[in-house]
Design goal:
The protein has 159 residues and is mainly alpha-helical. The protein contains 6 helices and 2 strands, in the order ααααααββ. α2 packs across α3 (29-42). The longest helix has 14 residues, at 29-42. It is flat, with a radius of gyration of 34 Å. The protein starts with a helix and ends with a strand. The model has no long low-confidence stretch (mean pLDDT 82).
Length: 159
Amino acid sequence: MAMFLNLLHRWESAELNQEEAAELLGVSERTFRRWTRRYDEEGEAGLLDRRLGQASGRRVPVDRAEEVERLYRERYQGFTVKHFHEHLIKDHGFGWGYTWLKLHLQWAGVVPKAPRKGAHRRKRERRPLPGMMLHQSLPPRRRGTAHGTNGSRAKRRLI
């Protein structure tokens, strides 16, 4: 907001034109004119985002969500969510997605969340394939032998 007010004062004092001020704000010239008009009419309150606190236009109506819960409890108890969703679309004209339905039924406590995957599904180390590098430790060597080392060395070889 401070950036807009600074540019507005520079525009009013003819340091900038509308196009330059809009470019510095990263908006179109038309948006800059709209913001200027709203600031003149409503003050700083006119610059606040009017979408805040508004429900989404795509939100499922409360009565429809309650109807879905009621249908599952009374008529489709024991169905999987996917099967229930198919019946809702076919028999009841349901127009919202499977993911919304699953999350809503879980949130309402009608359907339990799936258990976490077991330990057998955890990522394992890859199986060695031809051409992969293999790292091996050699047994410790005595002084004065080949390479003149007294500790272990890693040896690389191809499989």
